Amino acid sequence: MPIIVIEDDKILRALHVILDPDAPDARRAGLQDYLAVDLPDMSAWLDALRASATGLYPASVRMVGDPAAMRAALADADALVVEGLAVGADDLAATPRLRMVQKFGVDTRNIDTEACAARGIPVATFRRRTSAAVAEHVFALLFALTRKVCLTNGRLDVESLQALGFRPKMYDQRHVSGANWARVTGLRTLQGMTLGLIGLGEIGREVAPRAAAFGIEVLYHQRRRLPDDVAAPLGARFAGFDELLERSDAIAPLVPLTPATEGLIDGAAFARMKPGACLVNVSRATVVDRAALIAALDSGRLGGAAFDVHYREPGDPDEPLRRYPNVVLTPHIASTPRQPGMDDFATVVASLAAGTA
Question: 152 CB contacts (<8 Å, ≥6 apart)?
Fold first, then answer.
């Protein structure tokens, strides 16, 4: 029976259920409930996935939450699956049987790939389909803000448009077209915009090339600048944090929530932003300081905000952000539907089966 060590991440816990028949019943029930919105019959999916993984299922899975636990679990492990945990030469020295490291994504900055190569341990990567789904939602929110889709939805009559403060009136079509007879002001195009990405990790690397396809200039910032041969093909240019804030027409934090990133977008950050810039958040709500966000909206300096993640989930009916006409709020749906994630798990299972055969 292969021994698989897996980082104890909320998403990767699904692999525990997939690979280990001794996974807790509560974890299986939790995964079934999570998938049920798109997958009524999880058992059939599990059976098919396990049948495709010859020699891998059943496996003994060890979930680890920190570097010490990972190193202790690696002593007799056949494979390691990580998302964010660092894997270094010292960790590899403690595992004589390890046959592969599976990165849950493409960003291997947390893995000493040279040390792995020296030991003859392959590092497998893949583009997460779920990251692409989140990237798509970034643009859904950007379009909603820049084209005022949510604000004007269904407002096809003069009275309802006037209620929004617009002055609708048909143009003289003997001489000009009838486009925007509603006279909606403040509409913007993505073409020619500058988008600032705070973080160019798994999701950022999906957002950047899509932005470039729209004719958007992409800046990115993170603690460690990526090699140019990684960032340049994505159409992204490194910028200091202040430069990114000052130059961007739209800003998207794409970072995990850590003590260093909590409240990263604060009052000082909003003050540095270009007047009229908008903010799109699909990472974690508290990366943005709530009081500072509301102050920036009240002042009119912030052109708009769109959040798919929230300070409380489920939210409150009287959530104050709902009262702003230039704010778009979606109920944490960026990473859905479930199928991309299920396909990601299938890719990892196939990789592990091949790497431990």
Answer: 161, 164, 182, 184
Confirm whether 178 is domain-assigned: no
pLDDT one-digit tens code per residue, 158-213: 999 999 999 999 999 999 999 999 999 999 999 999 999 999 999 999 999 999 99
> If pLDDT is split at 50, 70 and 90, which confidence band does 299 have?
very high
In whole angstroms, how far apart are CA 122 and each of 80, 116, 127, 257, 353? Answer: 11, 7, 17, 30, 13
For residue 94, the model assigns a pLDDT of 87
- Asked if 141 and 282 sit in the same domain, the reply is yes
Task: Tell me which of 114, 175, 312, 313 is the catalytic residue.
Answer: 313
Q: How far apart are CA 179 and CA 330, in angstroms?
A: 29
Domain range holding 30? Answer: 3-125
136 is catalytic: no
In a domain, 161, yes or no: no
Q: pLDDT value at position 325?
A: 96
Model confidence band, residue 135 (pLDDT cutoffs 50, 70, 90):
very high
Q: Is 210 one of the catalytic residues?
A: no
Residue 205 placed within a domain: yes
Q: For residue 74, what pLDDT is reported?
A: 97
Angle at 202 between CA 63 and CA 208, to 5 degrees: 175
CA gap 24, 308 in Å, rounded: 31
Q: For residues 20 and 138, state if they share a domain.
A: no
Q: Is 332 in the active site? A: yes
What mean pLDDT value characterizes the chain? 97
Residue 349's CB is within 10 A of a number of other CB atoms, namely 21
Catalytic residue among 147, 210, 284, 301: 284
Answer yes or no: are the C-beta atoms of 265 and 279 closer than 8 Å.
yes
Contact 76, 3 (CB under 8 A): yes
Q: Are residues 111 and 245 in the same domain?
A: no
Number of domains in the chain: 2
Indicate the pTM of the whole model: 0.95
